[in-house]
Amino acid sequence: MGFRCGIVGLPNVGKSTIFNALTAAGIESANYPFCTIEPNVGMVAVPDERLDKLAAMAKTRNKVNAQMEFVDIAGLVSGASQGEGLGNQFLGHIRQVDAIAHVVRCFADDNIVHVSGKIDPLQDREIINTELILADLETVRRRQQKTASQAKSGDKVFKEQLAVLDAMEKHLDQGLPARTLELDDSGQTLLREMFLLSAKPVLYVANVPEEQINTGNPWVEELTRAAAAEQASVVMISGAIEEELSGLDPEERQAFLADMGLSEPGLNRLIRTGYQLLGLITYFTVGEKETRAWTIPQRTKAPQAAGVIHSDFERGFIRAEVISCADLLACGSEAKAKEKGLLRLEGKEYVVRDGDCINFRFNV
């Protein structure tokens, strides 16, 4: 698994169109609010040219990309937390995701209605952020009531948790997302346990017209400034372009991208930004039988990286045979890399780097 990404936004911002194009899931996308009722879930292979080259070099029989999961929920409107539109009943579907992609409409089209009657990315952003915070406020208050009752016993743990919950409630009530609240380690643990929506890292997806995919527009500039204030990234994607790309074969896709002045699809930019947002890297296992990409957090040590493959690898870890992807491809084979002394033996304290190709040695 690469990571799980929840897609949110107002109705008719192109949320489901982009989801459909990125995942080729064939879901309904229409010019009216709330055409997405049930959550749509799609798995996407994380594109990685390094994996492709390694698999070709090893003449592997099975190439396995890392996987990214997108979860698309019904469009939210102002007042969703009080039951407007479809209410916030679908927010539970994205409580387990790693990050949230907030699709914001940055295009004008008289044929596609806007629920607020005008194109205003900053207002759209504020509406969604507010609804996520209000949903979290409800969650925190429910937990407060339960913990306050438990704390009456005098239990120190519950009293400490109640203090954290009180701080969370005050913070959210000021309209501030949970991710900006400073907490100690125990507070962070409680925050993770509650799966608060506004605690999740956010990236903004500016849906632009295809003719502005390389230049952007004033709406994108406004959104970028606002996102920078909360240390969030903005990825420009044209739903129209991605939709057309999804119906082309690989050769036609490359020609189409070239005609549009693009070097890669929007999916690649979205995934790369998501990896940076979450601090994720990729390492590879390479062989004739299988070549596979594995996703791990930055600063992961070798035994824990091995554990991503199987828990036995971590428990019985002996050492890791490591070579960078660039060195292995330059040598053309592991044998030649060994001859040149480029294959290193690393122990339990080795911190895995992005692009490492690793063989793990372990006791069963």
How do the helices and strands follow one another from N- to C-terminus? EHEHEEEHHHEHEHHHEEHHEHHEE
Helix content: 40-55%
Total number of β-strand segments? 12
Morphology call: flat
Structural class: alpha/beta
Major sheet characteristics: 6 strands, mixed
Secondary-structure arrangement, i.e. CATH architecture of the largest domain: 3-Layer(aba) Sandwich
Q: What ranges have pLDDT less than 50 throughout 5 or more consecutive residues?
A: 25-37, 83-87
Query: Regarding CATH, which class of the largest domain?
Result: Alpha Beta
Strand order of the largest sheet: 2-4-1-5-6-7
Look at the structure and name the CATH superfamily of the largest domain.
P-loop containing nucleotide triphosphate hydrolases
Number of helices: 13
Termini separation comes to 25 Å
Q: How much β-strand is present in the residues?
A: 15-25%
CATH topology-level name of the largest domain: Rossmann fold
- How many domains? 3
Mean pLDDT across all residues, rounded?
A: 87
Q: What radius of gyration results from the CA coordinates?
A: 23 Å
Give a verbal description of the structure.
The protein has 13 helices and 12 strands. By secondary structure, the protein is α/β, with parallel strands linked by helices. It folds into 3 domains: 4-49 and 63-119 and 200-277, P-loop containing nucleotide triphosphate hydrolases (Rossmann fold, 3-Layer(aba) Sandwich), CATH 3.40.50.300; 131-198, DNA polymerase, domain 1; 299-362, Beta-grasp domain (Ubiquitin-like (UB roll)), CATH 3.10.20. A hairpin with a 5-residue loop joins strand 8 (280-285) and strand 9. The longest helix has 31 residues, at 121-151.
